[in-house]
Amino acid sequence: MTEARGPAGRNGTTDAGYTPGTPCWVSLMVHGMAATQEFYGALFGWEFQPGPQQLGPYVRALLDGHEVAGIGQLPPDRHLPVAWTPYLASEDVDATAETVRHRGGTVGVGPLDAAEAGRMAIASDPMGAVFGIWQESAHLGPRLTGVPGTPTWNELLTYDSTSVAKFYEAVFGYEEEPVVSADFDYITLKVEGRPVAGIHGVGNAVPRDRGPHWITYFQVADVDETAAQVTDLGGHVLRPPAESAHGRAATVVDPEGAMFSVVTTSG
């Protein structure tokens, strides 16, 4: 689970600058900002500072002073699913948004400027899975990666990997590496030969109340302890800790219903 970005520096930081198609940010839109910050602050050790307010109240989550994620406030009249959304890097968000439309996807928000930080849009693929598009304009300093409390992988859960992979390949130029298996439908998306995300086709096992969706994996020091802590903090465990292709992992839900995975990667 590696990402195509700037060269790694010391202490798990990387230089800004992401190759197009690389997941470069994750953001969560919620109803209760204060309670959500309390949950993730306790779980991952995050601190928070105000961020761009174009879509309403928004904070950036910091770990050891480095930005790792964003949390925003849903408008009271918007009854949208509370979910973590990965943002995929683009050199031209307007052109990428247009390609999304041409390839059967939908652009729900933007493109619009996010203060001095960059330009963004929120879109969905032809199966309905929501993702963001991000064009960076400001150098906001090195980002932290590969340490507990940071996003480490993004995976699309959908009906069938092959058809939707063609959409993402057309929009972002991914290389595809399918798993050759009769009973496991999975494609790894690569940028410049490096794995950056996965697509898992699960057929009718896609949750009816959620539909196809992206799920973010966060690195933790101990998956079992983290899963127990999620419950203590008011969330719950969907899939208990178990060994996976990514390492020991569990799928959990925060108190507002946002699903995510926690993982301890090997090596």
Automatic annotation (TrEMBL):
Highest taxon above the source species: Bacteria
InterPro entries: Anthracycline_SecMetBiosynth, Glyas_Bleomycin-R_OHBP_Dase, Glyoxalase_6, VOC_core
Alphabetical list of Pfam families matching this protein: Glyoxalase_6 (PF18029)
Signal peptide: none
CDD domains: SgaA_N_like
VOC domain mapped to chain residues: 22-136, 150-265
The protein, known as: VOC domain-containing protein
